[in-house]
Amino acid sequence: MVPTWIERTKLLLGGKAVEKLSQKHVLIIGLGGVGAYAAEQICRAGIGALTIADGDTIHESNINRQLPALHSSVGQPKAEYIGKRLLDINPNLKLTVIQEYLRDERLTALLSHKYDYVVDAIDTLSPKVFLIHDALRFGQRVVSSMGSGGKLDPTMVRISDISESHGCPLARILRKRLHRLGIRQGVKVVYSPEEVPENATRPCEGEPNKKTTIGTISYMPPLFGCMIASVVVRDLLND
What we know:
Elements lengths: L6 H7 L1 H8 L2 E5 L5 H10 L4 E5 L24 H12 L4 E5 L5 H8 L5 E4 L4 H13 L4 E4 L12 E4 L7 H12 L7 E4 L9 E3 L8 E3 L5 H18 L2
Parallel strand pairs: 1-2, 1-4, 2-3, 4-5, 5-7
Antiparallel strand pairs: 6-7, 8-9
Helix pairs in contact: 1-2, 3-4, 3-8, 5-6, 6-7
């Protein structure tokens, strides 16, 4: 029997599709402004198993754009906090919470398991390249978020293969890095070609893989996360 909370989804998709989604397992790495919204929408769509990973805690500077960020939640572990929220949405969710920064061998080991989809919502370049490279090496399907910072116009956000992305500085650098590894296509991305104003960036200190901090409006990271969720759900339904 379909739980009451997902009856509207069944009305749209049909019972077989809801059952299909309940058998899928999605890995989401990065639970910031984009990743947390992606995780929630994927959960609310009825995906049966989620593995979520992020080593960060909630900061006051996250409040303008991140789903778990409230004055009352500042300082709490991000992955654990979001995990509790997801189980409150779907108590039957098969959930694995990884409250740590995933790097090198640890990330490789995680990606060696079979998932139905991998969501890359990391906002630093080197780990992003490593994640995509290893995910493809293990035959995983990947959707990756490009930069939502510095953007204001939601109508310019697009979904494409990375080879077709343009106008996004992060996507351009990522393409170059992946080309060196022999990867030119096969990764879906959510991106916007909207130009970032020069005055919206400042140098970033203390993060080795991140050179600048970019100003961000409240609604753009959630929009990126929702579009990522749409990629995952629609592709899984089309399997």
